[in-house]
Each structure stands twice: as structure tokens, then as C-alpha cells.
Design a protein that fits this description.
The chain is of the alpha/beta class and 357 residues long. The chain has a 6-stranded antiparallel β-barrel. The chain contains 7 helices and 17 strands.
Length: 357
């Protein structure tokens, strides 16, 4: 018998097959669903989120079929603090957060790993499309999955060395079609379950409405749409409704496309410009996390992604302060968005990253 591993089971096909694969490899597998948001309620349309009652039911059924112990663990408090409060605070400050990155670092890894080790586990495992490897320099890093269209390394850049040392990601060695085929082969009841797309705590996608409910009276109200030079172009409905690069939903007509190029929370202004105005050749980032490299002692040419769906671009990174890196891109990148992450790669391996300032 190999070592003990706690698998975070969301009720979806990826985490279910992760549990199956690890059991087949001989690990002592324990299934856990993290109760982080909903109080066991189904969504109004009947679909289920990653933390709904349906998700728990699906995960429990899979655990029974695999004959592994299964538990539901309550992480609501840490999720509220590290994910929801952070999400709301960033929008109120005029930034666009990435709650999945925060959830990965502080809930799915930090909190779950701590709880798992308390019950004797050696590892935690998830259904992420990524791989964990130890590099020749002795550091752990996440490596791209074998399938580029499902790669999830971007959202994992903030994990610590300790967390990576105690993490297994078996799904990263497979294509999505192979994972579904394995689920069908073993007659798992979630084999055809669709992938979750939305942020779990905002299933309707209405971020502004969620923020107004979470922080009543705190969201900045209407303000001015302005040009770069401050010329007033119209009235906006509040900065929490906008993000860099946005074109639709502005409520203005100029006879040509305009885009959000900047959000100015201090003056409650949203800057509009033409398509070319949303391209930048450099950015600064903070809240750094080094992964495949221990530090940045000299400028380095790396491949960088500035959002999950960004294909990436070459840039030179240089540390300009204790917690600050300047990135100079070889080709301008579109919609550099404060609050999002920039993640640095060396080939298939994550070197580290930070939050765009």
C-alpha cells in the first residue's frame, strides 16, 4: 500500500477520475468535498455548482463506487475571508480579481492540506490539468498538462514549495477525452457531467449585483466616462461594472468601437479609448511568488501570461524592489488588468508570478 492521499472531490469528472487513478496506483485514498459557499442549495435552474448539494451527492456516489472513505469538510470561514472578501475588496478598489487563484492557494491547498495532514494524510490531490515535478535545482514547480486547451497552471502559480511537495495531480497526464473515457469505462455516474464554467459563488455571472449584496452601500456610485485627457464622455453606473478591455455594456454610442482602457477609483472615472489604447508594452507586479526559480537575481527572458486565456508573450522581467517585478514585453499585450495575475514560464514549467499593479 502506498501513502495516504486526500482527494478534493468536487463531484465533477476530473476529480472523480483523479481519485480512481490514485486508487488504481495503490494509494490509500480518502475523498473529501469542501463545503465552502452554499448551504446545500441547488441552483434555481437545477444545475449544480462545485459546492452545491448536488456536488456532494455526486462525489459521495463516486466514493461509494470506489469503496473509499468520504467526508464533507467545512471551510466556509476561510473561503469567506480569503476568497469572497478579497473578491469584493478588489472590485471596490477598481481592480479585477481572480478568485480561483486565491481559492487554490488559501482554501484548496493551505486549509485542506493542513486538515488532511491532521488526519494522517501524506498528500492531497485534485483534478487540475497540470503536473507537479521537482526540477534539477531542487525546487518544485507545476508543469503544463499534456493538453494545452485544458491547461490550468496559470491559476496554480501561487502555491508554495511545501504545498507542491505534498500534492499529486494525476489528471495532468491525460487529455480530457481520455479522462471521460476512463469515467465511462468504470461506469462512474458523472462520466457525462458538463464542466463547471462560472465562479462558484456567482453562478449567474452578475458580479456587480453580488458585490452590492455583500457590501451594501460601499460600492462607488455613478461617475464619468472620460477620455485619456479627462474630457467627459458620458456617465457610467459604477466602477464595479467594468474591467480593462471591455467594449460591450458601456451604454454609449460613438459610431465606432470604444474600450475601457483604465479605471481610476480615486476619481471614480472610467477611461475610454480606441482599440490601440488598451495595449501595453510593460507592467509591474507585486505579491510575488517564486516557484521554479528561487529568486530573480538578474533580468531574465521568460514567457508570460497575463490572464487565464492569454496565449502568452515573451518579455524580460527584472526585480525593481523587494516585492516588485517590471515586465517589458517584446510585443504589446492587450488589456493589462490590475488585480489579475501575470505568470512566468520557462518552457512548460511555472517559474512564478505576481499580481498586476
Amino acid at each position: 500500500m502506498k501513502k495516504k492521499v486526500v482527494v478534493g472531490m468536487s463531484g465533477g469528472v476530473d476529480s472523480s477520475v483523479a481519485a480512481l487513478l490514485l486508487k488504481e496506483e495503490g494509494y490509500e485514498v480518502v475523498g473529501v468535498t469542501m463545503q465552502i459557499w452554499q448551504d446545500g442549495k441547488r441552483d434555481a435552474d437545477g444545475e449544480s455548482g462545485c459546492c452545491s448539494l448536488q456536488a456532494v451527492e455526486d462525489a459521495r456516489r463516486v466514493a461509494q463506487m470506489l469503496s473509499i472513505p468520504y467526508y464533507v469538510m467545512n471551510f466556509k470561514n476561510v473561503f469567506q475571508k480569503e476568497v469572497v472578501d478579497y473578491f469584493v475588496g478588489e472590485y471596490l478598489a477598481g481592480r479585477t480579481p481572480n478568485p480561483c487563484i486565491a481559492c487554490n492557494r488559501y482554501v484548496k491547498w493551505e486549509a485542506l492540506l493542513r486538515r488532511s495532514m491532521e488526519i494522517g494524510a501524506d498528500y492531497i490531490a485534485t483534478g487540475h490539468y497540470a503536473r507537479v515535478e521537482r526540477l534539477p535545482n531542487g525546487r518544485y514547480a507545476v508543469r503544463n498538462s499534456v493538453t494545452a486547451d485544458k491547461d490550468q497552471t496559470y491559476a496554480l502559480y501561487n502555491l508554495t514549495q511545501f504545498q507542491l511537495e505534498h500534492t499529486l495531480m494525476p489528471v495532468g497526464a491525460y487529455h480530457k477525452e481520455e479522462i471521460r473515457a476512463i469515467a465511462r469505462e468504470y461506469s462512474l455516474p458523472i462520466a457525462h457531467k458538463p464542466d463547471s464554467q462560472d465562479i462558484c459563488f456567482v453562478p449567474d455571472g452578475d458580479y456587480a449585483g453580488f458585490i452590492e449584496r455583500e457590501a451594501p452601500g460601499q460600492a462607488p456610485g455613478c461617475g464619468n466616462f472620460v477620455a485619456e485627457d479627462g474630457t467627459v464622455l458620458g456617465t457610467h453606473k459604477g466602477i464595479i461594472h467594468y474591467t480593462i478591455g471591455q467594449r460591450k455594456g458601456l451604454g454609449l454610442s460613438f459610431g465606432h468601437p470604444v474600450f475601457v482602457s483604465e479605471i481610476r477609483p480615486d476619481t471614480n472615472e472610467v477611461v475610454l479609448g480606441l482599440s490601440g489604447d488598451v495595449f501595453r508594452s510593460e507592467l509591474s507586479c507585486g505579491r510575488l511568488n517564486f516557484m521554479g526559480m528561487e529568486d530573480l537575481s538578474a533580468p531574465r527572458r521568460v514567457w508570460a501570461k497575463i490572464r487565464y486565456a492569454h496565449k502568452g508573450e515573451w518579455c524580460v522581467i527584472e526585480q525593481t524592489g523587494e516585492d516588485r517585478i517590471l515586465c517589458r514585453f517584446e510585443k504589446p499585450v492587450r488589456a493589462v488588468t490590475p488585480g489579475q495575475a501575470v505568470v512566468f514560464y520557462d518552457g512548460e514549467y511555472v517559474l512564478g508570478g505576481g499580481q498586476i499593479l
